[in-house]
């Protein structure tokens, strides 16, 4: 009988220890939808902005109920800009693909950027600036901070082109993002990202560094987009997927949805998640 009592006592003690040392849950007060506090972290209510995503999504074609046309809410200025912008880009002969070529993905990126509370958008991988141009046009209150290696001969001319179109709303930092983002953050701690897009170096080290460095610049409940994952055949799918899945397992992000473009010959996908801030 004493053995039984002893065993029960040990079990109770173990349960008490587990309860005391259990991880606590981060609880954040949700601010009004349009609240933005400069130099402090704001909380954005994203729920209504994901109404375009169906339950159990498998392919990107399911977004927006299958309607991949660009939103009619685009300003008249955008319609005028886009023709000139595309012509200028073609003259520079960009050597890489870009998200705007996949209409449904571009539409999703624009939808998230158009949120009234999105004031600051941070991206790695400017390339020729198609997405940057779209964000600045769809959201007249947004400021884009871009980080790009600057190796493509068209990148700097296109950045200057966008800077002239949207004066005072676009900053770009050239160089290795694994070094430039931390330096920028130290010099500008007041810049906090509401929407983060990772589309820079497609290696495990660079992608992971960009994610973790941007996390330090994130607002509460910032949204992060990882370009080019998932994809079926592209060689970087496994590399980027490893980083994304690692971030999920380690509590860096919480995935909201992912999708793959099923239209041939396209092989493109992207993943969207919420940054998990270590508030506790």
Automatic annotation (TrEMBL):
<dbReference type="InterPro" id="IPR029063">
    <property type="entry name" value="SAM-dependent_MTases_sf"/>
</dbReference>
<protein>
    <submittedName>
        <fullName>Uncharacterized protein</fullName>
    </submittedName>
</protein>
<dbReference type="Pfam" id="PF13578">
    <property type="entry name" value="Methyltransf_24"/>
</dbReference>
